[in-house]
Amino acid sequence: MTELFAGRYAFVDLLGSGGMGTVWRVWDAKRREYAAAKLLSRSDSTSLLRFIRESSWRVEHDHVVTPTGWAAEDDRVLFTMPLVRGGTVADLVRDFGALPLGLVLDLLDQLLAALTAVHAAGLVHRDVKPSNLLLEPPGSDRPRLRLSDFGIAAHVDDPRLTRIGEAVGTRGYAAPEVLRGADPDPAQDVYAVGVLAAELVTGRRPGAGASGLGDHPLAALVAAMTEDDPGRRPTAGGARRTVAGLTAAPGPERGGDPVEVFDHVPELPDGWAPDGPVPLDDAGTPVPVPAPASEARPEPEPEPAAVQAATRPAPTRPAATRILQEPGPDTEPLPPAMRPVPRRRGTGWLPLAVVLLLVGAVSLIGGAVLLLR
Fold this sequence. Notes:
nucleotide-binding; Transferase(Phosphotransferase), domain 1; transmembrane; 5-stranded antiparallel beta sheet; Phosphorylase Kinase, domain 1; alpha+beta; serine/threonine-protein kinase
């Protein structure tokens, strides 16, 4: 097996790369399972702060991606999370365009359930958009949606350090008051869901509010969620109740053309099996592992559905959120393929100390830290 990063993680294959670092499939030798890992250089303080911040927000919910751990070695820091194999809602819209009403209602129900839990924890996500909504292939069930990327999330009670005129989010999904520099508020996430809902039923991002929805069953809800006045928008829980009513109500055919959520994670490379690394003999040839004599060896099953991460399925990770600006070019070189840099004696404590200090800083200044860039 390849060397272990921080004595625990083996790099299996590269899943994506971008301005915020690289995303790998790794083998966790302690948990004996595959995970997704974001690998950063500790010299990239902006990205490092973002992902430390993301790891500090922990909302335990079926439809929220929760980071599982981190490790540091030499000048690199690694953050792990579950893999989610089905790509993103952005992939779904790109592949199929306008989605059937039944699927749209299903996805909205799951997203609003996640946001209800996030808001109950006192958090505002601030970057709800299709590329941050991960999907797990459904098998015989519905696709499972999971909200990811809490890198610019804020607590409603965080101290306000934003400069006047500075806004955080993604243009097109940010509420009007965000562009005016308003404090974080759950109503801003609701606005983004309204824009997203219109995009799902039309196959394109609307210019404003419910424009172009006509008499679509979701038109009234989208109009309410995208009200200019945040005080007139429903809560995430209230919007979810409306979605439930639309789901139960009789109406036109909801099936539409079939939409399939594909597995976007590639097959395991040579030397790796569903249950971990394949043993090699002295000549480097894989050694077959016989099944126990007392029982037949079952056919390997597909990896569980909870397997992809805050990762993007393409060879290039979609643009990470900036302060309403386009992301810059990649600045971090890819790590050596399949093998992390060996640990250098006498320096292993440095990244650990840096990370611990940054975690402390995040806990002190909360939502303001990502705005100072």
